[in-house]
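Notes to self after the Tuesday call (sharing in case useful).
The group wants a holo model before anyone commits to mutagenesis around the pocket. I volunteered. Ligand is pantoate. Logging inputs and output together so the record is complete.
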Amino acid sequence: MPVMPPEIVRTVAELRQAVNAARLSGKKIGLVPTMGALHAGHVSLVEASDAVCGYTVVTVFVNPTQFGPKEDFSKYPRTFDADVAAVGRAGADLVFAPDNAEVYPAGFATFVEMSGVAEPLEGQFRPGHYRGVATIVLKLFQMVGADIAFFGQKDYQQTRVVQQMVRDFNVPIQIEVCPTVREPDGLALSSRNIYLSAAERRSALVISRALRKVEQSVAAGQRDVWKLRDDLQTELATVPEVRVQYAVVADAETLHEPAILDRPCVALIAAHVGTTRLIDNVLLAPPK
Ligand code: PAF
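Result:
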């Protein structure tokens, strides 16, 4: 059957009208928030939504408030036509692509400030980032009124920030976290991978390699978190072109670093390769 292209709307009023009509016809509403420059990881989120929701909304908005002053907001890749085609093939019904004034009209003055899970790791290296993320995600939840929102595990700390915000503000939405999609050689898909030269891309593979080694150590029975962290850092140090910001093993819920792997944990890495900043992670279950 030919794929119906998704409807494209630019205003909250049009969005609400379309979503209300879908809800009135008995459909469950799924939301996939994105900043565009979509890849197979985003497509997998749309497919996950399409599998359980009768109506899937994809938002495409490069959110200025989550970029620091020295970050890549103005050069962030924008590939709108290809994005619409890709999410249409994956089952999206509507693309909401507002302009900045629709989201942050003149006089906008309210932000979500979060402590706890927003503070370590990305919170240290990208001050203000999660203030912007939590604010835009709450706004998108309010605008769309979806039943379920789909996020990728690749932005692990972001998923914890969103879960915390939903709990703290009693937002009536279910959060689904979907597995990271990787290239066959292990590189986690990211919209920023297009910035990597061929040599940088080769260097970047040490990130997923280090994470895999830690998974293997845990599978072999290692429970000493400091040892696991050392293993991560030792592997990363084999490629000096990769400049590590953090490489840690943390409690999967609080993101604090325990001494012993006696609870679900997550190994997380952030590193620069050339001028490109990459993040990746793997979940670590405590050995039985
Ligand atoms: O993960 C992203 O692409 C963004 O942080 C999000 C959730 C769409 C908010 O702008």
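Two things stood out.
Strands lie at 7-9, 29-34, 55-60, 94-96, 148-152, 174-178, 242-251, 265-273, 276-284.
The radius of gyration is 19 Å.
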